[in-house]
Amino acid sequence: MKKYEEEFLNYIYSVRNYSIKTRESYQKDLDLFIEFTNNKIDITYKDIRKYLEYLYDKKYAIKSIARHISSLKSFFNYLQSENIIDDNPTILVSSPKLEKKIPNFLYYDELEILFNIPDKSDKLGFRDALILETLYSTGCRVSELVSIKISDINFNDKKIKILGKGNKERYLVYGSYLDNLLKIYLKDYYQDIKKNNYLFLNKNGDPLTDRGVRYIINKIARDGNLKSHISPHVLRHTFATHLLDGGADLRSVQELLGHENLKTTQIYTHISNERLRRVYLEAHPRSKMK
């Protein structure tokens, strides 16, 4: 089974263009399963059930078990498509129902407070303000943010070419606020940090990392004594929520976020509905008994 696992992992990475992180996640799940089943090839539905019982007994979280099931289904689908096995033992296995967690987002007045915290008279402070604006204005992932190069930016069309999940190329679009900050940053501050083709650099002139950006945003939140948890992903959630609140259709938001599946984007409709419910309860005179 180990031999086929390696072929499968190479397939999803080389042919399906899954990221190295996704490949590693699949490998971790499959290694545990193969160890549990003693590397045998003739896996049955009963083996799968025993394995899932083992995960439940070990107190694995429901979300983690659902991921393991997804990994096994993908693996055995591959084995069946390659005629390595005749019957797929996972075909009757269903994933546990996951509770939908509504992502955190910021209201516009909270954003304004956040944006005014960095000191724009300082070169690193201006960079930090640009980081916040880029995350909110484009809805990009933090991994996409740190990979932006100046040569990727089309200033005429106000768009940025990035390589998203699964090595898929897409464009981030942006508006006047970000355009203004970008031009000031590149003209007045960028050369003072150090010349480098990457847009976001640390104080030594090296490209920022995902972890570096998270540290910067945490520090900004602490400096401003903000109570809300703020992260790059919260700004991405806020981007999507504000677009839907402004009347954008779900398909467009899906493309802007780089989601492969519309179901992933639909979570943001729950945020908008919840926001409207709160507004109603707070504002309507007959929303509750006195």
- Number of β-strand runs: 3
What is the percent of helical residues?
A: 55-70%
User: N- to C-terminal separation?
Assistant: 66 Å
Radius of gyration: 23 Å
Report strand order across the widest sheet: 1-2-3
Can you tell me the CATH class of the largest domain?
Answer: Mainly Alpha
Order of helices and strands: HHHHHHHEEEHHHHH
Structural class: mainly alpha
Question: Which sheet architecture does the biggest sheet show?
Answer: 3 strands, antiparallel
Can you say what the CATH homologous superfamily of the largest domain is?
Intergrase catalytic core
User: Globular, elongated, flat, extended or rod-shaped: what is the shape?
Assistant: globular
Strand content bin = under 5%
Question: What CATH architecture label of the largest domain applies?
Answer: Orthogonal Bundle
CATH fold naming of the largest domain: hpI Integrase, Chain A
Domain tally: 2
Compute the number of helices: 12
Contiguous runs where pLDDT drops below 50 for at least 5 residues: none
Mean pLDDT score: 87
Short description:
It contains twelve helices and three strands; from the N terminus they run H-H-H-H-H-H-H-E-E-E-H-H-H-H-H.
How would you characterize the overall build of this protein?
This protein has helices at 2-14, 20-36, 45-57, 62-81, 108-115, 123-138, 142-146, 176-193, 210-223, 232-245, 250-257, 262-283; strands spanning 153-154, 159-163, 169-173. It is mainly α and 290 residues long. It has two domains: 2-81, DNA polymerase, domain 1, CATH 1.10.150; 108-281, hpI Integrase, Chain A (Orthogonal Bundle), CATH 1.10.443. It has a three-stranded antiparallel β-sheet with strand order 1-2-3, with no helix packed on it. Helix 2 packs across helix 4, helix 6 (123-138) crosses helix 10 and helix 11 (250-257) packs across helix 12.
